[in-house]
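Aim 2, interim progress: modelling of the 4'-deoxy-4'-aminopyridoxal-5'-phosphate-bound target.
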Amino acid sequence: PLETTKNIWHNGNLIPWDKAQIHVMSHVVHYGSSVFEGIRCYAQANTAGVFRLQDHMQRLLDSAKIYRMPVPYSAEQLCSAVVDVVEANGIAPCYIRPIAFRGYGEIGVNPLKSPVDVYIANFPWGKYVPGNGGADVCVSSWSRLAPNTMPSLAKAGANYMNSQLIRMEAEINGYSEGIALDVNGYLSEGSGENLFIVRNGVLYTTPLANSVLSGITRSSVITLAKQLGIEVVEQALPREMLYIADEAFFTGTAAEVTHLSSVDRITIADGKMGPVTKVLHDEFFAIVNGLKPDRYNWLTPVNVK
Ligand code: PMP
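Predicted structure of the complex, ligand included:
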């Protein structure tokens, strides 16, 4: 069950958690007309910081723009709203969920006549992809969104119907997550994670053209890898690259950096976290946990007592 907090930010005001309700005839309930974000706030020794807040809010506005959804707040206003709600609720570490959607107005498919509502909630949340030694995953029988059907670069609620099919199938069959191929049969991403493969010291990830979300953790890992002198290649990858990989891992706000132990019950190398994954994993956590300086200005401080 979801742990509740005191306040949720709604269209510029903090309102009580229990009052953050919508009508059943709201457009979003019927047609999935929402765009949202998932953001983590990390605790450091004496402070707390929201990870890449500006980038998340820019992606929210980008998602809204793709769907012609006017959000009457700038990225800066949304960033300060996040700081306000996290500080008001006094919880860090936490997960932050901003969402904009088409609310109560018209019930036809065209969303343009329904009002846009913006909410920001936060709550405590732990590990996302289960598996201590690493995740045992499968390649999904479901494909990822085809280009020209649902735009993958928008983090839209409706996209997660596809993610739900992938994740349910995986869990029902005893895996912790599924990796979907794109419509051309190339690797795409997990139901809520980007995918990386290491082979012969080179770090591969699927490009945005293969129906993936432009993950903020993905971009962070690419930045870290380049600075650490690891060659990064974004290219279409066939499914079997996973089976013969030296290492493979997921990235995501929820998943952070989670290594894959096996895919389709084929063990990746020896199933343990490999050296390239480890160096990236450790560097990522050193920065977000404040053990190393925040050299990319990834953390927005919040004052949580
Ligand atoms: N792909 C999908 C489909 C996702 O839902 C997510 C989680 N937002 C990601 C990738 C990872 O993106 P990020 O690192 O920005 O959380």
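The chain has two domains: 7-123, 135-288. DSSP finds seven helices and 17 strands in the chain.
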